[in-house]
Fold:
Amino acid sequence: MTTDFTYDLNITHAPDAGGHFEANGTLFGGRFAAETLMQPLQEIEQAFIEAWDDPEFQAERLDLLKNYVGRATPLYHAKHLTAEVGGAQIYLKREDLNHTGAHKINNTIGQALLARRMGKKKVIAETGAGQHGVATATVAAMFNMQCDIYMGREDIRRQAPNVFRMKLLGANVVPVDSGTATLKDAVNEALRVWVANCEDTYYIFGTAAGPHPFPLMVRQFHTVIGQEARAQCLEQAGRLPDVAVACVGGGSNAIGLLHPLQDDDIRLVAVEAAGHGLESGQHAAALAKGKPGIIHGSLSYLLEDEEGQVQGTHSISAGLDYPGVGPELAAMMSKGRLELDSATDNDALEAFQALTKAEGIIPALESSHALAAGMRIAANMKSDEIVLINLSGRGDKDLNTVMDKLGFQDDTQGTCT
Amino acid sequence: MSRLSEVFARCKSEKRAALVGYLTAGDPNVDTSKELLLTLAKQVDILEIGMPFSDPMADGPVIQAASERALASGTHIADVFELAHIVRKTNPDIGIVLMGYANTPFVLGFDIFSKQAVAAGVDAVLLVDIPPEEGYLCDPIFKQYGLDRILLLSPTSTDERIKLASKHASGFIYYVSLNGITGANIGEMSAIKQKVANIRVHTDLPVCVGFGVKTPQQASEVAEFSDGVVVGSHFVGQIPAHATQNEAMVSSINDAAQAMKTAMQT
Structure:
């Protein structure tokens, strides 16, 4: 792979003018926002459309993606893992090798450039696992912008290393105690703060959800993943993958990988967090177990009770612990273009260890869900077939959680098996 | 003439602005909420009944906490309709507006929601997160059931957006006086006055002003240039302030509303 990758900057499968992704008569997406945010959202939409068509904006963005983020990320043929699974060839898209350790920075680079272009001095963001928070704090440091990150108190506890990273980067981490004190509540709080400060503040939304234009914009900034993976697979294997697999919380890494592959004859698989099991009621599988609902500015699938109250979710991975999902994935599922799969906490822990031992790559717990499902799918396929798995992030941030779950004692005399 | 039109016509003939009071249904529990709503209904021209929601994105801490109390004490949408119905039975002339978030009627189904709202004696619905652009979901159904659709305007609303809202709203326009959430500090009075005048260029609908009206003095000032003054967090705030003392809660909401009303009449 050459380092200078040529990206297709045409916007395909665009939503309608109102940001709706139509499927079977339902208009997913849209802009379900309070009046105060309507004009700021229109301004962002306008700025995004102009910037996307501006060669200077694209040149700066792509230069940063190459020289600051480290794109193109490798596509790695995981031969040892393939041998262990004993089925299709497993290829990993190494988003974990991006600067800051996850795909999230593809989006924060784009939105920070947009914020600067719009003359905003301050950025805010929500974060769950802390990966989007770190990616936002990173670009804010680079662009010398003031940065506040909203994070649920529960997630702050689970993701201490990322909290420290954000603080080192100069961001202010604001704990959120309302509701369930996780990602959805951090989004609520960031929206409240943005409403009051939209004059000088830009909200860097972290996933391909929220009110229009965020689902479209976040997708466009992440399609580098799928575009590269497609070309790299053709170059290395001489053919396209048969299956492409990504984990889904809000869905940003999934739409980034899968969107550029949807016009090919490739099975697209979205892997949701099954937590303690899809039937346990303690999971975060919005597409599999949710119903259409409206939250955080868009109409999509949502884990909610019969009266529309949003339900608490559970996943070992904070980044997947979200009751909603991006509207475009909901529309793709509704149209039958997206297959659903899921992985439990335990599945993810097993996959986490399997990849670490087989390939010397420690994956994020989020990505471990995609791995668990991808390995299961590969096991039932032939050896001349290809499963492409998006390794959306690295696992360093999860070591405390995994140590705890595996009962690892920090004892230099002992051994970890 | 719709009931809301009658309310505003009556206030106009009395040369005063309408007092619009908000409480969340089921806060702190359904029984107490019934007393509080009945008390407030006696003082206001229009009663806004909040439908508790798990994720009240446009609300400040006071009304967020109200939603949490209502849900924790087991308030359901059926209770919201029942409370509205109870208020209506003894208050035939006041306006009753259900206020909340899109997901509540969306999940119930706008048709069923509207049918039950009308049966409960509700006049209008205000859904914070359904702007005119997404009105395709509810506008035709509300119209069919004769429910007014209250739309918000804010300091960020351009002339174009004011025209759009005016085209789709009925009942009244709710002008959010500040860029922010409910219960924040009210904006600069002269700027609010100017924006209300600007809105009136584009619509004949009554314009009510809310978000941040906390004192009788503010209510009185807003009343001078608007058709109605909305008070929410100030009333809701009496509930946690008096914790489990129901009588004190009832009398403090009564007194707070009385003070607003008196200030607006002078």
Notes: The radius of gyration of chain B is 17 Å. Chain B has one domain: 3-265.
